[in-house]
Amino acid sequence: MSYPKIVYPASGGTPTTLNFTYPPVKKAGAYPFADLEAVGTATVTVSGKRQVWFMRTDYLLRVTLEVVPWSDMPAWSAFIGWAQQGGSFLYYPDASATACDEYWLEDTNGSARSSTPIMAWNPTMASGTIMMAAFEITLRKVPGGIHSS
Fold first, then answer.
1. Rounded distance, CA 50 to CA 52, Å?
2. Residues ≥6 apart with Cβ < 8 Å to 15
3. Residue 34 in 3-state DSSP?
4. pTM of the model
5. For residues 83 and 102, what is the distance between their CA atoms, to the nearest angstrom?
6. 149 residues of the chain, pLDDT tens digit each
7. What's the gap between Cα 47 and its chain centre?
């Protein structure tokens, strides 16, 4: 098994491939079983009955990269800048395989300085290393998006 890769845009245009030099860490579980987040609302009536208005389930994938070489950062910066604008991309958990899913960038876990931020990306120096960066991104699976296995 090789490390993941991202191909963007998901469709149309000239594809760009972003290969991971090192694997993500702190994986929640086996791909594609990411975090499941139910979207809707739940209330309790005066009589004590629970009412749930369920809209959808979002599939979120947290990708934590603790060791990213500085030489990879221009490619990551280009991808993040593109994805922050709302484009979708393909995430391959194994770059040597054909299985992939279409995602949007949900969060870059950065600290925003603007009064109306969409999301901020603030990679840090990797702990105990020289010339390595660390960051985390959260991906949201596109409902009905491209899926291949």
1. 7
2. 7, 8, 9
3. coil
4. 0.83
5. 12
6. 689 999 999 998 899 999 999 998 876 566 666 788 888 999 999 999 999 999 988 888 889 999 999 999 999 999 999 999 999 999 999 999 999 999 999 988 776 666 555 677 778 787 777 789 989 999 999 988 888 87
7. 42
How are the residues of the chain apportioned to helix, strand and coil, as percentages rounded to the nearest 5? 10, 45, 45
Q: What token pair was written down for 66?
A: 């603790």
| Per-residue DSSP letter, 95 | T
Alpha-carbon distance of 128 to 5, in angstroms, equals 25
Distances, alpha carbon 41 to alpha carbons 36, 44, 50, 51, 56, in Å: 15, 10, 11, 8, 11
Judged on CB neighbours under 10 Å (0-12, 13-18, 19+), 146 is middle
Interstrand relation of 89-92 and 50-69 (parallel, antiparallel or unpaired): unpaired
Rounded to whole angstroms, the Cα distance separating 96 from 106 reads 25
Report how far apart, in Å, the C-alpha atoms of 116 and of each of 57, 113, 120 are: 27, 9, 11
Token pair of 83, please? 């994805």
